[in-house]
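lol forgot to send this yesterday, sorry. struct tokens for the thing we talked abt
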């Protein structure tokens, strides 16, 4: 399964998060345009994986998880408590410590 999430999306690419090199976004600034990526912890690969927020799917009434399609077209349900980071235009703007 290693590497299963590393592929190009139409209009963007998934990438691996490296919190050691990410810089926090300046306080008070907002991401109004551009790209927002979400980093979630993948239990199988034991690492944080970043995906474009526009690729996330939310079912009406489900406040606990989001859907995400893998490279084979299979829909996976990712619990929201696994979201660890948010990036705006490549800059770390939010991070959950644990």
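and heres what i got for the seq, position by position
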């Amino acid at each position: 399964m290693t590497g299963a999430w590393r592929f190009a999306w139409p209009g963007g690419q998934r990438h691996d998060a490296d919190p050691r090199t990410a810089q926090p976004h300046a306080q008070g600034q907002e991401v109004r345009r551009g790209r927002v990526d979400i980093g979630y912890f993948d239990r199988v690969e034991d690492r944080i994986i970043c995906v474009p927020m526009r690729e996330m799917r939310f079912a009406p009434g489900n406040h606990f998880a989001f859907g995400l399609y893998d490279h084979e077209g299979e829909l996976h349900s990712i619990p929201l408590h696994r979201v660890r980071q948010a990036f705006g235009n490549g800059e770390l703007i939010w991070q959950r410590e644990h």
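The longest strand covers residues 36-42. anyway ping me if u want another try
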